[in-house]
Sequence to fold (314 residues):
Amino acid sequence: MAKPVAETVARHLVATGQLIDEDPAEALAHALAARRLASRIAAVREAVGLAAYHAGEWQTAIAELRTYHRMTGLQSHLAVLADCERALGRAERAIDLFRGADREKLDQAVAIELLIVAAGARGDLGQKDAAVAMLQVPELTAEAAEPWTARLRYAYADALLAVGRREEAREWFSRAADVDTEGETDAAERLLELDGVVIEGDEEDEESAEAIAAGPGAPGAVPACPDADLTGDAERDERDDDGRRDEAGPTADERDEAGSADVPTDDLADDELTDDEARAVAAGPTADGTGTDATDAAARGESAGTGESDAPQR
Fold:
């Protein structure tokens, strides 16, 4: 890419990383703007996929993360893909992803998250005892606490509660709370709830608690961290099905006309931008990472665009 284009893409990626937790819709608008300029860079496709996941755009997240996996040969976001399938009401596909994964080649954190999501999918299908059995893995009782230990124990406690094993569930919520130093779960609150203690707060606190109570395995709950630093150099896609070489990025004049430019179609498959989406992205975030009124409108449109499904109730 030409240096000016590379700098613009980098700014959009940095903005995506900064906003993804606080304002997922705006983060997705930035990521889509980066994709319009550099759709063949793997880190860009990953950023779009993760931003879409956080924004609840399940179909977009699936398409982009699958493209990222094809481009890099990695399988680092299988848990996120499975969680998206759950959110779309396709629990069987989530379980198939778990079954088909080569868990020996997966990072342990990815393998554990995929297990948690697959167990949640079993619960979605009414196979609650199977969900409990799936989570009875050696890592559950390991003495050394890992970043995912609290989430695994929480998921196990929740599965136990779903089959009526209340006392055991209380024990595992307690064990989850003991190692949850980052507050990733609401294990402490669930423990108080089981003990009959009700803590009343303002509406905002209650809504926040309800969001956390969705717990591990619920859509949007899987920690979705990019493989590469979004501020660093992105990896190019070396695959070119049409036999075309990657061209240098657009000139300044071409960037001025970006609103009417088509996104390269290789690797896009089922996730090509619609005309409405292209217009929304064209009004997207500025190069310095700040938003405009048009950006906010595009982000809101992107966030509300699909409405595919609500998170499955457990």
Summary: The two ends are 47 Å apart (CA to CA). Residues 8 and 39 are 13 Å apart (CA to CA).
